[in-house]
Amino acid sequence: MTDERARELRADFPILAQRVHDTPLVYLDFGATAQRPQAVLDAERAFVTEHNSAVHRGSHELAALATGDYEDARETVAAFVGADADEIAWQAGATDALNTIANGIAAASRGRGGDASAPLRLEAGDEILITEAEHHANLVPWQELALATGATLRYVPVNDHGTWALDDLRPLVSDRTRVIAFAHVSNVTGLIAPVEEIVALASTVGAVTVLDACQSVPHRPVDFHALGVDFAAFSGHKMAGPNGIGVLYGRRERLAQLPPARTGGSMIEVVTMEATTFMAPPTRFEAGTQPVSQAVALAAACRYLAEVGMSAIRDHEEALGARMVAELSAIEGVTVIGNDASVPRSGLASFIIDGVHAHDVSQYLDAAGIAVRAGHHCAQPLHRRLGVTASTRASSYLTTTDDEIDALIEAVSGIRAYFGANR
């Protein structure tokens, strides 16, 4: 993966050809939403214009074609993350998937699912372990689960860099730990978690592992079977795919234990006026009208990324990320969150500029044609621990070039002077 190759790939993304404020667009907000290549746009349009129909419920030709597309997409996406097709369920997004897991465990704790769901039950005195660096989507559902079951929510504290290590997590794992939920890659610091080591540690106490893979699946090779996690979640819109779809992964035996969090059409076996039985996973977790065109587009995104090469994408981004950290940190008055040489990190950089609010930084950069994220990035506890209300995040992807990083560094270098913060 070279800078020249990144420029070639950029041509596949129509939106990146535009100008903003009469300046070529420098898009460095991939951590929030990735742009889509023409191949993904074409795949969804082709489905909608040629095969659009309800799946798993019609006997006509279009319904058969749509159902085939839908299940083919499941096969493609499952293979992309090292899973079997019956181990992934379509969800509205990663947030939805994480809630499905937490709410399913809550239902199991109330006795739903009978003996089959008993391994997932929580009770007072049990513990759920997360980290202080989690996205709200991997924090709030566990807070709610603790409230619903009487379990205790514990967390691994971050250090002054905003990072944590396995040695920080290990002492908090006990025979009362029932769930360990954590991000594969932090959306603020870029820290890459030691997944396999945490899974091994969880197995010693019989804890369920839940992986927030939103910032890993789009950016690096991921094999859920090899990692050994029980559950995982990721979103389509962060990996060159469409909005409105995410993926719930669960090891086959864990999905079988999990009661459904949402009910309705499509996921039922037999319905009477007194009771209902549910389909086996993954259909059990796909109540209502399915996101068919989105699934087709997400599969197209997986094919596109696989053709480029996930290892190449990872190496490209990590090199850009290391450059951003080094060159931003060298600017007077700029502090990069997570600039900790002791932990591996991904291709993003969140930073703070002395005397200038992150939203002002973002607007200044926007005027220069540079799109970044400003705010707490849905990680208020992490920012509160560091004593800041917000930061600015620049996040790269396969189309990011050295020239774009040059533009970022040059623009950031002038911000303090522009706002008079260097006096």
UniProtKB/TrEMBL annotation:
Domain Aminotransferase class V intervals: 26-408
A Pfam family: Aminotran_5
Keyword Acetylation recorded: no
PROSITE patterns in alphabetical order: AA_TRANSFER_CLASS_5
Keywords, ordered alphabetically: Pyridoxal phosphate, Transferase
Keyword Ribosomal protein among UniProt keywords: no
Catalytic activity of the protein: (sulfur carrier)-H + L-cysteine = (sulfur carrier)-SH + L-alanine
EC primary class: transferase
Entry EC no(s): 2.8.1.7
InterPro entries on file: Aminotrans_V_dom, Aminotrans_V_PyrdxlP_BS, Cys_dSase_SufS, PyrdxlP-dep_Trfase, PyrdxlP-dep_Trfase_major, PyrdxlP-dep_Trfase_small
Cofactor(s) required for function per UniProt: pyridoxal 5'-phosphate
Family (UniProt): Belongs to the class-V pyridoxal-phosphate-dependent aminotransferase family. Csd subfamily.
Reported function: Catalyzes the removal of elemental sulfur and selenium atoms from L-cysteine, L-cystine, L-selenocysteine, and L-selenocystine to produce L-alanine.
Protein name: Cysteine desulfurase
Organism of derivation: Gulosibacter molinativorax
Lineage: Bacteria, Bacillati, Actinomycetota, Actinomycetes, Micrococcales
